[in-house]
Amino acid sequence: MQVFGRRLAVLALCSGLVLGCDSEDKHIVELVNDAVEMLESGNSVQARGKLKAVLELNAEDPDANYYLGFLALRDGEPNEALPYLRKAVQRDPARPEGHLDLARALFETGEDQAALTALGPLFAIDPGHPSAHYLAARVAKKQGKREAVDKALRASIAGDPGYAASYLMLSQLYAEVGAYKAALDVLNEGLKFAPDDIALQEALGLGWLDVGRPDRAREVFAIAVQNARADWTTYLNHAAALLQVGDKDGAAKELQRALLVGRGRADKKALDGAARMLMKLKRNAE
Fold first, then answer.
1. How many CB atoms lie under 10 A from the CB of residue 25?
2. What is the rounded CA–CA span in Å between residue 276 and residue 260?
3. Of residues 231, 178, 247, 236, the one with CA closest to residue 207
4. CB neighbourhood size of 40 (10 A)
5. Contact (Cβ atoms closer than 8 angstroms) between residue 55 and residue 83
6. What is the DSSP track for the chain?
7. pTM of the predicted model, to two decimals?
8. pLDDT digit string (tens) for 6-46?
């Protein structure tokens, strides 16, 4: 969550250099700043308390409404987020993230057309906003409009060549119709701009497996497992590639790593399958 820049803007509202800033205004600014600091440190419970205190003083405060809406949306409560976010953008229409989160909340509640409408003011502020175009692509995908998905994703990438999520969705768009080379090309292009993105690395490795090139998949996953954000799925997929090229010892080692990293948080069915495969490899080795 990028809130530090916004916190500086809030501080400037009542810095002592601005005339007409009364004691209540100063108290509101202090409460909001405290809440933002708590959000930055991960203390969302106390942050909510500060923000609710702001609304008791001024129910129209755009900052408190925005952050409360953001928190509700983050916690999977889009219906709760909507009234806060609507008020936030009404009171502060120049806030890009307010329009984006409002559109996200509308999308999550199934109001697809309203979500697109909510993106309009954001595009007026920032025509190339990558997250906004990505959300428009999600709406279009839900509606089955493949050309609109393609157009929105390309606009997202044009706005930010390192926006990994758009490369992922675009590659999936091609793979769904069997255009595997185009899908691989998109992933490779994304990795030029975001070389350390683990999701792109894994998708590329799986893409090579899909086209029957486990040797290339092994090369990709050998890099991916060195990534600081590698997860149990990374090791599991690396093991699959190693098995397909006949490296049973290497596959066994990666299966062990997948079981260790995935313990307590991975899909039980997937881990059970990995454990059975590991036992089979060990029996065959004996």
1. 15
2. 14
3. 178
4. 14
5. no
6. ---HHHHHHHHHHTSSSSTT--HHHHHHHHHHHHHHHHHHTT-HHHHHHHHHHHHHH-TT-HHHHHHHHHHHHHTT-HHHHHHHHHHHHHH-TT-HHHHHHHHHHHHHTT-HHHHHHHHHHHHHH-TT-HHHHHHHHHHHHHTT-HHHHHHHHHHHHHH-TT-HHHHHHHHHHHHTTT-HHHHHHHHHHHHHH-TT-HHHHHHHHHHHHHTT-HHHHHHHHHHHTTSTT--HHHHHHHHHHHHHTT-HHHHHHHHHHHHHHHTTTS-HHHHHHHHHHHHHHHHHH-
7. 0.85
8. 443 444 345 434 445 567 778 888 888 877 888 788 888 88
Structural contact between residues 244 and 214, judged by C-beta atoms closer than 8 angstroms: yes
Rounded alpha-carbon distances, angstroms, from residue 108 to 111, 113, 187: 7, 12, 27
**What per-residue string of b and e applies to 202-229 under the rule 16 or more CB within 10 Å gives b?**
bbbbbbbbeeebbebbbebbebbbeeee
Structure token digits, residue 140: 């279009």
CB 135 within 8 A of CB 150: no
Give the model confidence (pLDDT) of 57-92 as tens digits: 889 999 999 999 999 999 999 999 999 999 999 999
227: alpha, beta or left? (left if phi > 0; alpha if psi -120 to 50):
beta
